[in-house]
Design brief:
It contains ten helices and no strands. With 260 residues, it is mainly alpha-helical. The protein has two domains: 131 residues, Four Helix Bundle (Hemerythrin (Met), subunit A), CATH 1.20.120; 129 residues.
Length: 260
């Protein structure tokens, strides 16, 4: 049975997730964990856009992504600080990461995830959901326009959680447009870049907040002068981001970014 473009694309993302997880189990590198998470999030976004009611994204896979969040937070923090400036802290974070990876990524955990990926891959292949191109384009555009409207109506004192939800919305739109572009269904390069821009702008606040909260917890259990100074710097950076994140008006809506 020949897979539809959408089924083929989703199946490929699940295959990529499997490869990335296998590589991570072999070498524990940051990039492979990131690739694993991205592949699953792309799958989840496409399912949400097109098939959430018929073949929902498996809850256990959603929980697997969430379980890796603390390790990802450590990776982000380590990549943002200088090992020369914070040698003791960097060493401490390296140990925390190593211990966290060892605790979570047991052979049993990995085999469970591999099994879940294979089962969902088979379900997608056997179900082979097919949607005509016009409907695919319409659904992504409608979602994107909704995100734009929400963004334009943001209050200046919008809470980080509201910004985070909108960031996820633009990320879903971006992954939908990337599928349309790669599958030669619709030219979307400009709107993909626009989604990335807004996604990054909105995500900067939530990412900074996550880092502050994570460093605060770490400081409580491992107090140190270097960690206290880093926490102070991160709080200042978070305040600057909150003060500068403001909605920008795009009066032409979707058409402004679909003129490739």
């Amino acid at each position: 049975m020949k897979l539809s473009p959408l089924s083929k694309y989703i199946a490929f993302q699940l295959y990529q997730a499997r490869l990335a997880l296998y590589s991570f189990m072999e070498n524990k590198k940051i990039e492979h964990l990131h690739e694993f998470r991205i592949a699953l999030r792309q799958t989840r976004s496409l399912i949400k856009l097109f098939f959430n009611d018929s073949i929902p994204f498996p809850v256990p896979l959603k929980e697997a992504i969430k379980a890796t969040n603390p390790i990802r937070e450590v990776d982000v923090l380590m990549s943002s600080i200088s090992s020369a400036e914070y040698p003791k802290l960097f060493k401490q974070l390296s140990k925390i990461r190593k211990d966290s990876v060892k605790l979570l990524f047991s052979t049993e955990f990995a085999e469970h995830i591999f099994s879940l990926l294979d089962e969902y891959y088979d379900l997608i292949s056997q179900t082979n959901p097919t949607v005509i191109p016009e409907i695919l384009v319409e659904r992504v555009l409608t979602h994107y326009q909704h995100c734009l409207t929400t963004y334009q109506n943001l209050r200046e004192d919008a809470k980080p959680k509201a910004l985070h939800r909108l960031r996820i919305g633009f990320k879903d739109a971006r992954y939908g447009f990337e599928f349309l572009e790669i599958s030669n269904i619709h030219k979307c390069k400009k709107v993909i870049q626009h989604c990335k821009q807004l996604q990054n702008d909105l995500g900067a606040v939530q990412d900074a907040l996550n880092q502050v909260e994570w460093i605060e917890r770490l400081y409580q259990s491992h107090p140190s002068s270097s960690l206290k100074e880093l926490l102070k710097q991160q709080n200042k950076a978070l305040k600057r981001l909150k003060d500068t994140t403001r909605p920008v008006q795009y009066p032409n809506g979707v058409n402004k970014y679909l003129s490739d």
